[in-house]
Structures are given as C-alpha cells and as structure tokens.
Here is the input.
Amino acid sequence: MKKKNLNKILFLIFFLFSACSSIPKNVSDSCSIFNERYLWYKHTKKTELKWGTPIYIQLAIIRIESDFDWLAKPPREKIFKIIPFKRPSSSFGYSQAVKGTWEQYKKETGNKFATRARFKDSVDFIGWYTNKTETILKISKKDAFKQYIAYHEGWGNYKYYKRNEKVIGLAKKVKKQSDIYKKQLLKCRKALNKNKYIIF
Here is the structure.
C-alpha cells in the first residue's frame, strides 16, 4: 500500500514538473511566451540585471539552441544512415550547454544544484557565458550575432568562425530573432513589470 502511494506521489511530481516545463504555445512571440510563463520573465529579467545580457538575446539563443524544449539533445549520429549511434556532443536542455562548460559555470557561480533542464538556471548560464565572452573577446552583450558565434563555437574557436558557413547562418537567425523579440517586448514589458501575484 505504501509503495503504491509513493508511486502516485512520484507520478504527480513528474506530471507537475513536466507541465511547468512544457514548450510555450507560441515561441515566436516573446510577449506570448511571458504571458504563458510569467516566472520565465522574472528569471530573464534577473539575468539581465545580474549579467547585463538583454532578455531578447537570452530568448533568441534558447530559441535557436533548443526551441524551448527542456529535454532537448542533439540527434544521434547514424551508422550507414540507419543504425542509431552516439550523440555528437553532451549538449542538453534549454541552453544546450555541454557538460564541461556547465560544470565550469556551477563552479564559478557557486550554483552547485543548477540543472540544464531548468529555465532559471539555463538563462543564468547564458548570462554568465555572454558576460565572459565580453570579457575574453571584447564582444558587447548586445551584439547578438557575434555573441552567438562565441556561444556556439566556444571562446577558443571564435576566431575561425568565418570558415564556418553553418554557424554564420545560425548567428544571422539569432540576430533576426532577437530583433523581433526586442520589438515585441517594447509593447508588453511595461505590463509585465507590474506586480503579479503567484501562488508558487
């Protein structure tokens, strides 16, 4: 009897966590995202204040990296185009951070319980990373194009990005999406900044 009750509780916790982490209905509209996930606005705003990374750039990076899927992973490589093989990297979660860089983030920030499947931690990671990019590569945190290239390629490989047409294409998408999010936020940010009562 106790085991059955425990299973029910675990299922309920998993269900609630999954529901809170589901993909927003309209990921192309920042106002729609935050109206549906108001806590996400609070987390991105906190990251903007803490690290100086604009909300619209945080969202644009997540949109391109994971499309707001909290369990996103890179697709498995295939042998002979049929047999599933290993994944090309350890990227996971909203930010698609790899294990090594995530561990560095946790160590440097003291956020030892951070998880890549949690939106709050993911945007803080993006703020931390873009802040280090500004320090290391002298790239403004408002430069969506170059910030994304450094995010995707890493600080050491950034100088070689002009050889990589794929990453340039992705960075252009991030820049375009961040511009769209920025314009949308101008229309709803005032309303979002008003106090809202949340029961959790």
